[in-house]
Structure formats: C-alpha cells, structure tokens
Design a protein that fits this description.
The structure is a homotetramer.
Chain A: H1 2-14, H2 17-40, H3 47-54, H4 58-64, H5 68-91, H6 97-114, H7 118-124, H8 126-131, H9 135-161, H10 170-187, H11 194-210
Helix pairs in contact in A: 2-3, 2-5, 3-4, 5-6, 5-9, 6-11, 9-10, 10-11
Chain A binds a DNA duplex through helix 2, helix 3 and helix 4.
Amino acid sequence: MAEFSLDKDQNHEILSRREREKLAHRQDILDAATRVFAKKGFFNATLDEIAQEAEFSKGALYLYFNNKEDLLYTIMKEKTSKIDEFVEEILNEGIPFKEELRLFLQKLASFSFSDKEFLQIFIVQHAAFFRSLSPDKAREFCSAHEEHDQKVINRIDGAIKQGELRNLDSRSIYGMIHGASENMMFSRWECTTEQDLYSKIDIFIDMLFNGIARKKEVGSEQ
Amino acid sequence: MAEFSLDKDQNHEILSRREREKLAHRQDILDAATRVFAKKGFFNATLDEIAQEAEFSKGALYLYFNNKEDLLYTIMKEKTSKIDEFVEEILNEGIPFKEELRLFLQKLASFSFSDKEFLQIFIVQHAAFFRSLSPDKAREFCSAHEEHDQKVINRIDGAIKQGELRNLDSRSIYGMIHGASENMMFSRWECTTEQDLYSKIDIFIDMLFNGIARKKEVGSEQ
Amino acid sequence: MAEFSLDKDQNHEILSRREREKLAHRQDILDAATRVFAKKGFFNATLDEIAQEAEFSKGALYLYFNNKEDLLYTIMKEKTSKIDEFVEEILNEGIPFKEELRLFLQKLASFSFSDKEFLQIFIVQHAAFFRSLSPDKAREFCSAHEEHDQKVINRIDGAIKQGELRNLDSRSIYGMIHGASENMMFSRWECTTEQDLYSKIDIFIDMLFNGIARKKEVGSEQ
Amino acid sequence: MAEFSLDKDQNHEILSRREREKLAHRQDILDAATRVFAKKGFFNATLDEIAQEAEFSKGALYLYFNNKEDLLYTIMKEKTSKIDEFVEEILNEGIPFKEELRLFLQKLASFSFSDKEFLQIFIVQHAAFFRSLSPDKAREFCSAHEEHDQKVINRIDGAIKQGELRNLDSRSIYGMIHGASENMMFSRWECTTEQDLYSKIDIFIDMLFNGIARKKEVGSEQ
DNA sequence: CATGAATGAGGTTTCATTCAT
DNA sequence: AATGAATGAAACCTCATTCAT
C-alpha cells in the first residue's frame, strides 16, 4: 500500500503529463470494468456498458487493453497482488501465526468494505476468469498463485514446528482456513459494519483454534 | 432414494413405452447438458454442443426444456434436492451432531466420485446460475434453500443445548462448516481415491471440533 | 346454400361412413384454421395451435392438406365461392340493380354476423394469401375472381343501358361500390346488431345512388 | 413540405458531417426496408434481404432501429404523418369541401406515383403492422390516427351545416369516401399515368356528390 | 489519443414438415 | 387413419472487435 503510494508520487516526478494521464485513464477503465463485472458478471457485461461507465468510447478500451478477457485478467492480477502484498507484509512481522491470521482477516475485511467489488470479483468471477483464459495464461496465473499458497503452507508448517499448531497435515489446515474465511468474508456472516465483522473474525479464530466442541472439565484458553 | 427406485420401477408399469422413452430422453439431454456446463461453464456452453453431446437435434432440446436457462435451472434443482434429500435422511437418524456431519461429508464425497459433475455444477455454476435466473425464479430457489439452511442451523442450536457444541453463534458455526467443507470437497484436498477423502474427512472433523491449536497439558478427546 | 345442404345429404347416401367422417374431419380442421388465422393472422398462426384448436394432432393436418399454405388457399376458395354463389343467385332474380345491390349487402351483412371470421379472413388475409401463393395458383385464383368481377361489371353496364344508372365508366362504379362496401362491412360502421347494419346499408345505397351533395332546387351534376 | 426542405438545409448547417451521414444512413435503411416490405410483405421480408438492399450489414440495422418491428413502425409513422401533414394543409385553405377532397385525392395520387411503395405499405401492411405491434404502441398509434380521423369527420359536419352536403351521418360519409378512395388509389382504377388518375378522381367526385343513379327529371326517389 | 459506425460470426429460438410407430 | 417426437433450416438478434476519420 505504502509502496503503491510511493509509485504514484514517483509517477509525478518521472513520467510526463501525457504518460501520467494515460495511466490514470487506464485505471479509470479498469475501475469501471471492475464495477460492471461485479454487478453483471463477466459474460453478461458488455464492452458498451464498461465504456459508458468509464466515460470513454468503446474503441478507447482497445487502446489500453487487448480485449475483454484482458480486462478481467488485469483486474484479477491487481486484486491478487494486493492480497499477496499484504500477506508478504504480515509474514515479515514475526508475530505468532494466530495473530498473523487475525491481521490478515482484518485486512481482508477492511478491503471488503473499502473496495466493494474486491471479493465479488476475486471469488465469484474466478470460474469465468479461468474459463476465459488461454491455457498458457492460466498456467502462468496459477503457478504464481501456487507459489504464494506454498509460502502460507510453509508458514503453517513453521507454526507446527514451533508448537503453536497441532501436528496436522498443513495443506488440510490451509484448506480449512481458506474455505471458511472465504465464506465468512464473502457473506460477511450477516455483518453490516466493519466493526461487527472484526468481532466475527475473533469468533472465527476462536473456533478455528479451539474447536467447536464443548470441553468437559479443563477449560481452553481464551 | 428408495422411493426414487420405486418410482423408476413404477414407471415401467404405469407409463406407456412412449412416456418412458420421453422421460429417458429428457434425462439424456439433462445429463448431456450437465457434462457440457461442467466442462465449459454455462455461458461458454452452446446448445449446438449440448445437442451433439445428447445426440439429439438442437430443436429437440426445446421439446423438453423452455430454453438454455431452464436447462441449468433443472439441473441445479436436481442436484440441490439430492443434497436436501440425504440431509433429511441423516437428520432423522438421531445420532450425535458430529457423526451426522461425518455421514453427510462421506455422502458428499461419495457423490463427488460417482457423479463427477455434481460439485462442479453445484458450486462453480452458482454465480452464472443466479445471474441467468429471472428474479422470480431466483427468489423461489433461494427461499427453498434458505428453508433447508435453517433446518441445519436449528440442528446446530440443538447440539449446543445438548452440550455437544460450545455455546457459539450457530450461524457462524454453520458458515465455518459450509465454507471449509465446500473447499475440501471441491478441491478434494488432493485426494485421488474415495478412501483418501474419507480419512481427510476425519481429519477435517477433528480440526473442526478440537481446533488446530496445540493444547499444552490436558489432552483432547479422540 | 341450398345446394350445399343437398350435398351434405347426398353425402349421407352416396358416401360410406368412413368417407363421411373424413369429410367432416377435414371441415373441422378447416374451421379451426379459419378461427386461428382470423385471430392471429396467417404468419403468426402456428400449425400447433391449429391442430390444438381442431383437436387433432399436428401430423393429421397433413393427411388432409398439403401444407399451411394449402389451408389458407382452401379457406379463401371456400369463402370466395360462398360470395360467388349468392351473387349468382341474386343476378338470376331479375330485379333492379339497386335492389340487387341491397340484397347482396344484406347477405354479406348476414354472413359477417353468422360467420364471424368471414370478412376478417376474406379481406385482411388477402395480402398474406397472395404472398404465400405460388405464381401458378395465384393466377388461377385471380382469373376465377376476375371472371366473376366481369359478370358484375356487365350487370352494371346493363343497368346503365336500361337507364337505371348514369352513363359512367362501369369499372369506376364497380370500384366505388367495392371499396365503400368493403369498408362498411369490415368496420361495420360502428354497428353492433345486424339490424343496425341493415339500416346503414339503406343509407349507403341512398348515398351511392343520390350522392352526398345537397340538391338546391334541381340537381346539377357538377 | 416547405418546412421539410428547410429542415434538410438546416441539417447541413447545424449538424456535423457525422450526424448528417448518420441521418442519411438511417433513411437509406428505411427506404430499403420499405422496398422489401412492399415487395415481400412484413413477415416474408428478412433482415438479411433488407440489409443487402440497404447495402449495410445486418448488424448495422440494429444501430438505427431496435428490431424488425421498429422498422415497420417507423415507416408507418412516416407515411401516416405525410398524409396527416397535407390533410392539415388542405384543411387550412378555406375552400369548399368538394374541392378539398379533390385536392386531397390529387395529392394522394401524386404520392402513389412518386413514392411507389407508399400505398402498398400504407394499406396492405396495416394488418401485419398491427399484429406485430405491442398493445401499447398499437394504442398510441391508433389514438393519433383517430384524432386525425375526427378532424376530418368534424369537417364533414361543418360541410353539412353550411349546406354543402346532405344531412347524413357524417361517419357514414367518411367511411364511404375512405373505402372508395382507398380502392381507387390502390388499384388506380387501371390508370397508368398520373394524368389518367386525375380524371378518374373527377369522375369519383362526381359519383360521390351526385350519385350514380340516373336522374329522371327532378328530385330523387327515396 | 480518441471516436463510434460498421462488421459478421455465432448465439438462441421457432416452426413447418416428416416419419416411425 | 392418426400420432407426436424429431428434425433442421432459417429467422432474429447480440456484441467483441476493427478502422476510417
């Protein structure tokens, strides 16, 4: 995030006005496409509507992007790298896994309120996205993602070794966290405010770490 | 299930050959559509391909279904009711919630191997499905589903009252189970055999009930 | 009309039950087609609907008629010959032209109330009819009609010679009568009962014969 | 008429070349559609043929019109308003009704020679037109037409009060004129030149005003 | 850089007609 | 004689993409 702002400032110094404008237009189109894809879905969205939303002509879209598919591809990459970015940040903080997860989910929650289309695009349009991708690009995209997944799985293995987590299959743990948190984030578990969602995150982490079963005599932490 | 078989047998006795054939053809088309939707997705699938896959003419599809959307709708309803059916069965068995869940997941796992397109259609095509639905049908479909969700949530509440589960928000528990198990089933957590998946289910339930955190001194159940 | 009834009776004596039934079925289909064509128009009418209206299967239509076009052709011929029939009758009565015309219009009026689809089919579907006809059949149909028109024009010439009508171009007189009476019959000049229409016919004939201009003292023609 | 020419000139000054071209293309398509509809009828006409006749692609038709129906609707409105326009003009001239009618019919005759498809479309395609119209648009169209009809009927009433016409039901007079003149114009009463048709119009008006009956000495019968 | 008119391939849908039963 | 499931040609319409301006 910080770096991104830096980039923007740097733009101002390094790039000409022309180039800065071009970048801004590109982003305008991307934002418009994001809104339309989120609202209508990739296949139902038309370039006409995106162009209108972006307040550009249809032809202009092709000055910045190769085709409709490229628009979604770029958006997905942008959203994905946003996540990768702050996962990277969090992993560098050297705090317990549980707190890392909490931070991550809080960040995601924050995004889901600030960038309303974020999860809608990121989760729901995945299927359309992969279907519209050429095999090459799909492989490229997946491998980047898998690399990132692997980092998280390694972190889980680390937490197991450090005695923070039980000695379970780390991929299964990852799958559980991934699926459950996706569900929580996407449906927001009926939260309307960011604050509400934060407390749900605490409940989620409690359930995840301590289980949902009633303990008979000896209490659990928290 | 039992009744369904009965139906089929009764078909043979009650219905004329013409009528039986018509039913069979209808099912052939439905199966073909399921395969094509699973492979290409709803929007990329063409009626040409479905017709070819079903070994019927394109026009024949319209003897059995109103339109493309109707095909997906019918498939989704069929898949949904399959799930509802065995949830109903399981809820009637009067066993602990944990065992109910295990049974449910095993059944789902079994389906995901016998009916290869089941989850692909059920999970991935949801978005396309709802986008392609008229508002009326969408509401109808959702309300049926919500009713079913509510039953499960009530069951969770029951398990809490009986001291089987911790006193947590039942909707959150439901969301967690839902998201995590969807992830497990869909990616199959890298299992290639049904047996493998069964042991993953056990791990899943262990994680879910006992948590993923390392307990310091006092052991956990199971 | 009378002859037609005779035909029917003769059918009973000459034809076998099979043959009589076949004729009846044929007429049922024709009547159904007439109703549907009148309601929807030739192009919007579907054989499905006609079959349903006739309470036969779609395939059965092809046992009695070659194709959709043939249905309309047969209907048109039937309606046309009905008119030709009573024109013939009237021409044989040896009464003044004005009374012949009155009789003819009364007969038409009577038909338009008893056979509700008569004029709808006869007038409105003309265009569709001729468009759907092969050139050969169109010529055949027209020539039959022209022959009949000629008879009427000859009658007008006769009335001129006998001093009943002014010495005007008989084809123009025919056109005037034809157009005006078609308009009267079809829109019925806002009549709802047959009796109403009869008095409009008297007005029509008055206008036609005496003109619409106010006569000052002695009539001038322009 | 005069205004229309003015409009065209103004177009040249006010509108950009792009806009002028677009209007011209729109008219080209409209003209092509008119020719095809006149030749084949609405239902038998295909967009393929219209596009070919207009020397545009099929898709281009949809840049200017919503659908096939819209094409016919626009054409009908254009033709109708042409008639309404000069009826309005004539009504403002303050001349006897008989001369108004003559002027009107002459104008119509002139159109039927200059705009060859005018009457073909206007009269013959009426049925198809109304069948292809949504109820809303049909009502809208009819009410506009009825308003115009009413004006003419009021004019007839005026002519009766001024003693120009006999005291007859004005609607019946209107129906008579309407039907008879439609017949004359459409079949042209076998005229091949405009001049011929003009003399037929004189005959028509003579017949209409003075009747077709031979006057013996004074007064009419009935 | 920006436009938007034009394209045309390809989609869904309809329906007259056929034919095995 | 009667059925109605099946066909397939052809219709209308959409929209991603191109290109002259």
